[in-house]
Amino acid sequence: MPAVVIVGAQWGDEGKGKATDLISDRIDYVVKFNGGNNAGHTVVIGEEKYALHLLPSGILTAGVTPVISNGVVIDPEVLMEELDGLTARGIDVSRLVVSSHAHIITGYHRTLDRVTERFLGKRQIGTTGRGIGPTYADKINRVGIRVQDLFDEGILRQKVEGALEAKNHLLVKIYNRRAIGADEIVDELLSYADRLRPMVQDTGLLLHRALEEGKTVLCEGGQATMLDVDHGTYPFVTSSNATSGGASTGTGIAPWRLDKIIGIVKAYTTRVGAGPFPTELEDEFGEFLRNNGHEFGTTTGRPRRTGWYDAPIARYSARINGVTDFVLTKLDVLTGLEKIPVCVAYDVDGQRVEDIPWSQSDFHHATPIYEYFPGWSEDITGVRRFEDLPQNAQDYVIALEGMSGSRISAIGVGPGRDAIVTRHALLD
Fold first, then answer.
1. For residues 20 and 220, is the Cβ–Cβ distance under 8 A?
2. In this structure, what are the phi and psi dihedrals at residue 89, rounded to the nearest 5 degrees?
3. What is the dihedral of CA 228, 233, 237, 241, to 10 degrees?
4. To 10 degrees, what angle do helices 311-321 and 391-404 make?
5. Residuewise pLDDT in 10s, the chain (428 residues)
6. Residue 423: Cβ within 10 Å count
7. What H or E segment, with its residue span, contains residue 19?
8. Catalytic residue among 21, 25, 41, 187
9. What number of CA atoms fall less than 13 Å from residue 376's CA on the CB side?
10. Exposure pattern of 28-51 as b/e (b: 16+ CB <10 Å)?
11. Cα–Cα nearest to 15, from 218, 298, 375, 387
12. Which domains are present in the chain?
């Protein structure tokens, strides 16, 4: 059975849960392979709405084993709060498995994230201030704290003291903040050890054995392609690999096992934080998309920047990730528009450019070249067959498919988990 990867194909918040729902009856493991609690997604089940930040969506599906793998950075306080919140709502969270190799977000990571961002002034990246970037930096600098360190107080204290020796100089001498004591960090982290211990495993081995036994493993990416630290709009990116390649390094699953790559795209485009956004709208149409699409961050509550569909970005994502299927979400949000622009290329200094420019400066100054498609006024939230969509909606989907680099296999037509139109099976 396959390992399936679901990735965002734009700047995040595309609605990855739609794809998960389509194949949930065939999934045995859902694995979060990158990021932390700097992004979230909302899952609607009946009348209930669940906002998940650190936990994989499989935590809500009976019979599925949710896994937080080695590529994730974990804030233990946030993890426990999420688990407690779900437990209070009757969700069984006892199946959660956490990688012993995942890195831990500490209080000094959160502090450094906030003060560094403020220090940048007009050059701010737009981070959430939750310590994600500094934790990944420590991981790369080989001074990070891992989950397994919480079970050996001597090693934990040694690592914390070593990390703070340099960080306190920064905090005191550069940022004019108080020094952080090692004891307060160690004591806080140790307070989570007993509760974490039953969840911790070698998740790479666990997933390998699952695939050998014929189980289906779903790898769920946080953030999205255009926020990938290597392939996104650097430096306005996250600190991890949010593309399909990150699924292999972030889980320990061999690349050849990644059988299906499902890219999620909205029927328009959004992003949060600073950075280039060619199709961004700062007019009544931008407000229309924001209000109709409820485009406010699940984790931060920040209003998202909104714009029209960008086909060059979809093609780029299809190429970078090896997308086998797209799931197009929020088609219903466009209902009521007389005409719908789609960016098909860019104008860069008077030249038509079909793909994302390799120069960040060119991309920042690129202006969209639009084609226009007729809209529709019919309510489509109850539609479940493609042929029952209004003809203009069908034509819009088919046009996007032709310019996006892979087939569109499913279409989200409303916020509910069942509000989806299937054109092709995501798992054959």
1. yes
2. -100, 10
3. 10
4. 50
5. 689 999 999 998 898 877 877 887 889 999 999 999 876 666 767 677 888 889 988 888 888 999 999 999 999 999 999 999 999 999 999 999 999 999 999 999 999 988 887 766 666 565 667 889 999 999 999 999 999 999 999 999 999 999 999 999 988 988 888 999 999 999 999 999 999 999 999 999 999 999 999 999 999 998 899 999 999 999 999 999 999 999 999 999 999 999 999 999 999 999 988 899 999 999 999 999 999 999 987 666 789 999 999 999 999 999 999 999 999 999 999 999 999 999 999 999 999 999 999 999 999 999 999 999 999 999 999 999 999 999 999 999 999 999 999 999 999 999 887 899 999 988 87
6. 17
7. helix 17-23
8. 41
9. 17
10. bbbbbbbbbbbbbbebbeeeeebe
11. 298
12. 3-91+202-422 (3.90.170.10), 103-196 (1.10.300.10)
Does the annotation count 41 as an active-site position? yes
Residue 346 has which token pair? 């860019």
Q: Residue 221 has what DSSP assignment?
A: -
**Cα-based distances in Å from 64 to 20, 28, 396:** 12, 5, 35
Q: Which amino acid is at 72?
A: V
Residue 414 token pair: 């409303």
Angle at 219 between CA 214 and CA 220, to 5 degrees: 150
Sign of CA dihedral 402, 406, 411, 412: negative
Kindly state the tokens that stand for 10: 């734009």
Spatial distance between the Cα atoms of 273 and 332, rounded to a whole number of angstroms: 25
- The single residue of 13, 113, 138, 325 carrying the catalytic annotation is 13
Segments of 160-299 assigned E as strands: 200-201, 217-220, 258-266, 269-271
Kindly state the DSSP code that residue 146 receives in the 8-state scheme: B
CB 420 within 8 A of CB 22: yes
- Residue 264's SS3 state is strand
CA 24 distance to own-chain centroid: 18
Token pair in block for residue 16: 């990855």
169 counts as catalytic: no
- Which residues lie below 8 Å from residue 121, measured CB to CB, with a gap of 6+? none
User: Which residue, among 298, 290, 327, 295, has the nearest Cα to 406 in the 3D structure?
Assistant: 327
Q: Residue 195: how many CB atoms within 10 A of its CB?
A: 12
Nearest to 411 by CA among 110, 226, 24, 398: 398
* Residue 174: DSSP 8-state: I
